[in-house]
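INFO  loader      accepted 1 record
INFO  loader      residues=330
INFO  predictor   begin
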Amino acid sequence: MKLSILDQSPIASNQTAQDALMESLKLAKACEQFGYTRYWIAEHHDLPGLACSAPEVMLGFIGAHTSKIRIGAGAVLLPHYKPYKVAEIYNMLGTLFPNRVDIGIGRSPGGSAEATNALSDNFLQKVFKMPELVEELLHFLHQDFPSDHEFSKVNASPIPDVLPLPWMLGTSEKSALLAAKFGLSYVFGQFMSDQDGAAIVQTYRENFQPRIDGQTPEVIVTVPVICAKTSEKAEEIALSYLVWQLLIAKGEGKKVPSIEVAKNYILSEKETEQFMAIKNKMIIGNPKEVCSALRNMANHYGADEMMILTITHSPEDRIESYRLIAEELL
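INFO  predictor   done
INFO  writer      dumping tokens
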């Protein structure tokens, strides 16, 4: 099974944003050594507990300090941007780091309504035009606009020898059908969806239209995971993430709380339900438990690859979680 990393560059309560970004670099370097296939970093705006608002900057930094792991965004929030600029950025990365660059494409705002308005105009209208934006981006990447198109002679320079690989990220049938229509590989965000994920992935496969001869559908499923040497330790470590999610929902989740703070957090009746709902979408346990659950989930979805999101208060616990999983599965 292929394994990959989704990093949201979380900021722990004892860290600065710079600390968190440097830990993201350490994570990418460690996971390259562990044998993970790709490292993707997410894009968020004006969210105090997450450090990365510009994945393209971090990818240049991480690409320069690694040598073989694939790097990419999870995701480029395309309605914020002109497709031409996105193509330029990722072609530039593809030129610097040959045959290592992915473009994960998403449609969410990645932040508050106010941050969205500060970042881009007419975001909702752009969301409705997502199919046109995706098509335009693909044309710029493949340099295959019709000859009578206004952009037919516009190149997203520099053009790398191996083009960045585009992926569509999503949590619904709508995103699955969009990926299928344009012959894109698909990443399903299991932890962000309450829908029947396996059915959505099946819809993607059934409707897939190859863009290139011989192309076949490819699926990654993303899931939050906490692994430790014992189940009890994993449960304890996971408390930080779980309580942080509750705090975020209340507008109070500025940074990832310590395990001690999380242990002392008193749950209301409503929060107890929310806590369990979040936990039920995670995989938590010792290496054998976690890897068995990952295999089962991959089989359930028919996934080609599993992408793991791990958020802990301690950077050491996070790297250890990825290490233990790699030792068991890779």
